[in-house]
Design goal:
The protein has 259 residues and is of the alpha+beta class. The protein contains eight helices and six strands; from the N terminus they run H-H-H-H-H-E-E-E-E-E-E-H-H-H.
């Protein structure tokens, strides 16, 4: 079974719009029997699997993440990927990552994001589905669409936060399969890619830079400060005029680097 990141994100996205139930009825419906008593299909399913650590009914943000991994990869693989086991207590889930040295301050797609309460205690979690130069984008259970951390909001929703948001505790990195190190397409330097450029060629360039100089860029098709900085680093290494603009000379050097 392939344990790539796309599987769990695809499943999580399908759950957006699910509403918590007021009783143990209509659990498989997205919107019927809505209420605030912590009854969900996620809690039901995970409690059947692991009743000792997955309570039902109970607050369910962490349960939702575990359920998505279970559905994407199966029980055994999901537990390994989550660095130890399922658990609906966010503090314990975070500890699994920390104990396996899989805890980070900068996000990647597929990370499990953790948040703190006003006292600095971990209290909420979700799944990262996108990262750009300013924001981290998440899918969370037991939240709402309101801005900021909502740790008991009753639905599955898309959220976003600035990367410097002070209530982000950190990121646990599941044990996904490593992507195959295949050579990317060479980005075109005509027209020149520079700060503010957008589109497919920018994505190609970001993939090129990640491959050639290990730039670790978000492949979002937007040439922002990080991409310009990586272009300059590439130009310095390959003895091209260091101006942060990817043109014909840079394209020629990139072709050589990828040959």
């Amino acid at each position: 079974m392939s344990n790539n990141v796309d599987k769990v994100i695809k499943i999580a996205k399908k759950e957006v719009g699910y509403l918590e139930k007021k009783s143990n009825k209509n659990l498989d419906s997205k919107t019927k029997n809505a209420g605030y008593n912590n009854y969900t299909k996620y809690g039901r399913d995970m409690h059947k699997l692991y009743p000792s650590v997955m309570d039902f009914p109970a607050p369910w943000c962490d349960c939702f993440v575990d359920w998505c991994f279970y559905k994407a990869y199966g029980v055994s693989n999901a537990k390994k990927m989550l660095r130890g086991n399922f658990d609906d207590y966010t503090v314990i889930s975070a500890k699994y990552y920390k104990d396996k040295k899989a805890w980070y301050t900068k996000p990647k797609v597929g990370d499990q994001i953790f948040f703190t309460d006003a006292n600095g205690n971990i209290c909420h979690t979700g799944l990262v589905y996108k990262v750009d130069e300013k924001y981290v984008y998440t899918i969370e259970g037991n939240t709402s669409t309101a801005a900021g951390v909502v740790d008991n909001g009753g639905c599955v929703a898309y959220k976003k936060y600035t990367l410097t948001y002070n209530r982000i505790a950190g990121y646990g990195r599941p044990l996904y399969d490593k992507p195959k190190n295949t050579k990317p397409k060479v980005a075109s330097g005509t027209p020149t890619i520079l700060f503010g450029s957008k589109g497919t060629q920018v994505r190609y360039l970001q993939e090129d830079l990640n491959y050639v100089i290990k730039a670790n860029l978000a492949v979002d098709g937007i040439c922002g400060n990080s991409t310009v900085k990586a272009i300059k680093k590439f130009q310095g290494i390959y003895n091209i005029k260091v101006d942060g603009q990817y043109g014909k000379a840079s394209e020629k050097a990139m072709k050589g680097a990828l040959s």
